[in-house]
């Protein structure tokens, strides 16, 4: 029997996916429930597992874009496993000159192709796949940061006539790389946000002295009790939730000629991943403690790193927080995450001289930014919303008292 391997339905409104890589090779003997391949959609990555024992036959190679429900291979449940070579007379397949130089064992077809294309030695790359296996994504990331090994031609090429170059032409080479499905979707959403909303940004600065005092005083006991670090995100998220209660328009969005208000706060936390920016959502964060928030953020960050975020993990957000300060950003204007009407941008904390009770003191200061849809949120409301966050962080007792 030949059991078809089909692209599974991975979420509402998703019609296609890209085969990120096959984790098994064509002709491999596989067991039921083994992971066969990773699919990449515009929202998340999905693992496809074997539903039968048998021999794998691949029809669509890594990198192919396929429709939901399409057949991409099958499992021959009647085929026997290929016979193993005799131990005394092992059969070694012939390698081309490039493969002889590189260690390509245990690579998927897509990863092997990428290694040859960029002349990358997989043994020099830290793999993020299952059991530490080097994936195509690992190779592509490594190729960006490390110079590729130049291929040695097997025979001297004829010298081409020298081309005339203009004074403005740059020396060097160009490299083309196909955009991932997630990257294409990010690009589409960012452009859509700019075209469909009247985006405006307001700024303020916050003195984080009191928050830092609390973190220093309780961070060890906090980690001992909750097994997670006491960071800034817990305080910021709680401050945002209280501000959303006071200014509900920031937690709403426009649908046609109506405004949809939420009586809950599901906060998206923008985090970087090997495949681009993703926004996992803390559902009903208004019911969470600071410890719950920190644990939720840690779990989401680990899933993002490992490519394990699901569609549900990134759906249902009503407001987003983006922390560019982790990369050193001092100030920015974050872009809305449609259909949401507001996003808070956090930035780098710097010790700066400020006036405190008529005296100059050095304080840890952060610029914060609120980008908002001016169609639904007035300038006055946006400014007061940001001031409410500032006041809560400069006097953290307000967060506990919800005032």
Task: Walk me through the topology.
Layout: E1 2-6, E2 16-22, E3 29-30, E4 35-40, E5 45-49, E6 54-58, E7 65-67, E8 71-76, H1 97-101, H2 109-118, H3 136-145, H4 181-196, E9 199-207, H5 209-226, H6 233-246, E10 253-255, E11 258-260, E12 267-273, E13 276-278, E14 281-282, H7 290-305, E15 319-323, E16 342-346, E17 349-356, E18 359-373, H8 379-394, H9 397-401
Parallel strand pairs: 12-15, 15-16
Antiparallel strand pairs: 1-8, 2-4, 2-7, 3-6, 4-5, 6-8, 9-18, 10-11, 12-13, 12-14, 16-18, 17-18
Helix pairs in contact: 2-3, 6-7, 6-8
From the alpha carbons, calculate the radius of gyration and give it in angstroms.
26 Å
CATH class of the largest domain, please? Alpha Beta
CATH topology name of the largest domain, in short, is Chloramphenicol Acetyltransferase
CATH architecture of the largest domain: 2-Layer Sandwich
| Mean pLDDT score | 83
Distance between the termini: 66 Å
Number of strands: 18
Put simply, the count of helices is 9
Percent range for β-strand residues: 15-25%
Structural category: alpha+beta
Helical percent range?
Answer: 25-40%
Low-confidence stretches: 91-95, 97-102, 148-157
Instruction: Give the overall silhouette.
Output: elongated
């Amino acid at each position: 029997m030949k059991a078809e391997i089909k692209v599974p339905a991975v979420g509402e409104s998703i019609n296609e996916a890209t085969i990120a890589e096959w984790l098994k090779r064509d002709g491999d003997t596989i067991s039921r429930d083994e992971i066969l391949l990773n699919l990449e959609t515009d929202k998340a990555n999905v693992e496809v597992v074997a539903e039968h024992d048998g021999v794998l036959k691949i029809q669509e190679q890594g990198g192919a874009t396929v429709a939901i429900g399409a057949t991409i291979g099958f499992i021959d449940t009647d085929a026997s496993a290929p016979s193993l070579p005799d131990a005394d007379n092992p059969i070694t397949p012939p390698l081309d000159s490039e493969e002889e130089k590189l260690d390509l064992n245990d690579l998927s077809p897509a990863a092997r192709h990428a290694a040859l294309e960029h002349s990358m030695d997989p043994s020099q790359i830290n793999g993020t796949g299952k059991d530490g296996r080097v994936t195509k994504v690992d190779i592509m990331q490594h190729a960006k940061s490390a110079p590729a090994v130049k291929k040695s031609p097997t025979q001297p090429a004829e010298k081409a006539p020298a081309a005339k170059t203009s004074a403005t032409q740059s020396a060097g080479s160009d490299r083309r790389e196909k955009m991932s499905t997630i990257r294409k979707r990010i690009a589409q959403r960012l452009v859509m946000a700019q075209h469909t909303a009247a985006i405006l940004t307001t700024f303020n600065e916050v003195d984080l002295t009191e928050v830092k005092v609390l973190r220093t005083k309780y961070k060890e006991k906090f980690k001992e009790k909750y097994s997670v670090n006491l960071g800034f995100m817990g305080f910021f998220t709680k401050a945002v939730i209280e501000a959303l209660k006071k200014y509900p328009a920031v937690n709403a969005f426009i649908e046609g000629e109506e405004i949809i208000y939420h009586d809950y706060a599901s906060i998206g936390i923008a985090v970087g991943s090997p495949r681009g920016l993703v926004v996992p959502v803390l559902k009903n964060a208004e019911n969470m403690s600071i410890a719950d928030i920190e644990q939720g953020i840690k779990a989401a960050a680990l899933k993002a790193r490992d490519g394990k975020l699901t569609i549900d993990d990134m759906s249902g957000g009503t407001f987003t927080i983006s922390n560019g300060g982790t990369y050193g950003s001092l100030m920015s204007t974050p872009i809305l995450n449609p259909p949401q009407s507001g996003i808070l941008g956090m930035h780098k904390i710097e010790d700066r001289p400020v006036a405190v009770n008529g005296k100059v003191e050095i304080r840890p200061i952060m610029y914060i930014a609120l980008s908002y849809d001016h169609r639904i949120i007035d300038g006055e409301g946006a400014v007061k919303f940001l001031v409410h966050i500032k006041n809560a962080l400069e006097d953290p007792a307000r967060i506990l008292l919800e005032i």
